[in-house]
Write a structure and sequence with these properties.
Blueprint (H helix, E strand, L loop, with lengths): L8 E4 L6 H15 L3 E6 L5 H14 L3 E7 L2 H11 L2 E5 L8 E8 L7 H13 L13 E3 L3 H12 L6 E5 L9 H7 L3 E5 L16 H4 L1 H9 L3 E5 L6 E4 L5 E2 L1 H16 L3 E5 L4 H9 L3 E5 L4 H8 L3 E4 L2 E3 L9 H15 L3 H4 L8 E7 L5 H16 L3 E5 L4 E5 L4 E6 L5 E7 L3 H22 L3
Parallel strand pairs: 2-3, 2-4, 3-6, 7-8, 7-9, 12-13, 12-14
Antiparallel strand pairs: 1-5, 4-5, 9-10, 10-11, 14-15, 16-20, 17-18, 18-19, 19-20
GO biological process, one term: carbohydrate metabolic process
Family: Belongs to the phosphohexose mutase family.
Keywords: Isomerase, Magnesium, Metal-binding, Phosphoprotein
Length: about 450
């Protein structure tokens, strides 16, 4: 598709995600649902109000009514759409840099638009076949504040009180409007940092990967808290440190929840993304369940296809019993509940999850070179690894599962000009060997294909 990537439409506001595009998306969505109510939320980026107003104008012009929710996190927009809307739109670029913004569209169930729905929106936009309302049928705007209702909904679902002390890092994003209050309502003592809204993200980069939030480990040890929780700019992502200040790898956290859900249901299907660890497969299989992998950004498609009881990709968790959307607030509530019910610290709980050496690193790559780089990388890796390959998966790039349980993934980012290289080895030595091979091949391919 030309506009939609792995998580809606995302990119620079001066060249891709412009007010003109937001207007067109609004008109296309209004045409697609053919009247009705659309819930709109936005993050704290400097460009979000600009894009929100253009989007609303497009919707109103087709006769749609708008429920304006103002500054809210993405999980709350999904929840509100499920409760009140015929569709929903979040203005956010999630963890992208502040120069970017994005548009994420949800259906009436609070689920991100499926691929076929995104394709239809693109068809309407490029054909400009918009519905036009008469002057007396133009839609209306209603402003609502639903933060308290959303917090109560999460509290009711989690159903737990705690006395843990939590260090919370909001990345200067909209999660800061919900998380500290939710945690305090649960009874937790909360210490917040980077919890004031600022679209420049002055505290840290908004993506909660380890290198951006490593300082939390020292803070955990200095403050003596029970765990630390970090979110991204729109609060759909969550990262965690244990009480010793150790970062919990995102795949370990997925495996922990997957194990719990499969044990609780005495079996069932877990859906995860193509870039996740074999440790998830092992704990799910041992608990009597089955794992299916899907492309990045398509967990909701996977749940629909495989009837999954739980779905997750790195930093993103869907709890179907609560809702069919990524929800970090439910995740943090359930994690705290787990720690209390286990009556032992998080560092002890995660010891039950097997660990394999894993590395992730990006190679900068212009979007126009991605197809050719991927072709070169696949051919070279296939040639170098041919005797070791067990299977090849070609969703979201190419993943080589090897006979010893190690694997290599090379995939183009759907949101940024990068090629992502992910490698997991059964041993540290194997992981290093595979990473040097894969990263070297991709880096050389990018350099050789750049215009001179």
């Amino acid at each position: 598709m030309k506009l939609f990537g792995t998580a809606g439409i995302r990119g620079p506001i001066d060249s891709k995600v412009t007010p003109e595009l937001a207007l067109s998306v609004g008109k296309a969505l209004g045409t697609y649902i053919n009247s009705g109510k659309v819930a709109i939320g936005r993050d704290a980026r400097t460009s979000s109000v600009m894009l929100e107003n253009a989007l609303i104008s497009g919707l109103l012009s087709t006769g749609c009514d708008v429920i304006e929710l103002d500054l809210i996190p993405t999980p709350m927009l999904a929840w509100a759409t499920n409760k009140l809307g015929d569709a929903g739109v979040m203005i956010t670029a999630s963890h992208n840099p502040p120069t970017d913004n994005g548009i994420k569209v949800f259906n009436e169930n609070g689920v991100e638009f499926y691929l076929e729905q995104e394709e239809e929106l693109e068809r309407i936009i490029f054909s400009q076949s918009y519905k036009i309302a008469k002057w007396d049928e133009i839609g209306k705007v209603k402003k609502l504040d639903l933060k308290e209702r959303y917090i109560n909904a999460v509290l009711k679902f989690v159903e737990h009180e705690t006395n843990l002390t939590v260090l919370y890092d909001g990345a200067n994003g909209t999660g800061s409007m919900i998380a500290p209050y939710l945690l305090r309502e649960m009874g937790a003592r909360v210490i917040s940092i980077n919890a004031h809204l600022d679209g420049h993200f002055p505290g840290r980069k908004p993506e909660p990967r380890y290198e951006n939030i490593a300082y939390l480990g020292d803070l955990v040890r200095q403050l003596g808290v029970d765990l630390a929780i970090a979110q991204d700019g729109d609060a759909d992502r969550i990262a965690v440190f244990d009480e010793k200040g150790n970062y919990i790898p995102e795949d370990t956290l997925i495996a922990l929840f997957a194990k719990l859900y499969v044990e609780e249901n005495k079996g069932g299907v877990v859906v995860t993304s193509i870039n996740t660890s074999f440790r998830i497969d092992k704990v799910v299989r041992d608990a009597g369940g089955k794992v299916y992998r899907v492309p990045l950004g398509q967990l909701h498609d996977g749940i629909k296809k495989y009837h999954a009881i739980f779905a997750a990709e790195p930093w993103k968790f869907i709890h179907p019993k609560f809702g069919m959307w990524i929800d970090s607030f439910v995740t943090m509530g359930l994690l705290i509940k787990l720690i209390d019910e286990e009556k032992r610290p998080l560092s002890e709980i995660v010891k039950e999850i097997p660990q394999y050496p894993l590395i992730k690193k990006n190679v900068k790559c212009p979007d126009e070179l991605k197809p050719k780089v991927m072709e070169v990388a696949r051919n070279e890796l296939e040639r170098k690894l041919k005797d070791e390959i067990k299977e090849v998966l070609t969703i979201s790039g190419v993943r080589f599962n090897l006979k010893d349980g190690s694997w290599v993934l090379v995939r183009p980012s759907g949101t940024e000009p990068k090629i992502r290289v992910v490698v997991e080895g059964q041993t540290e030595k194997k992981m290093r060997e595979l990473f040097e091979l894969a990263y070297g091949i991709v880096s050389k391919a990018v350099e050789s294909l750049k215009p001179t």
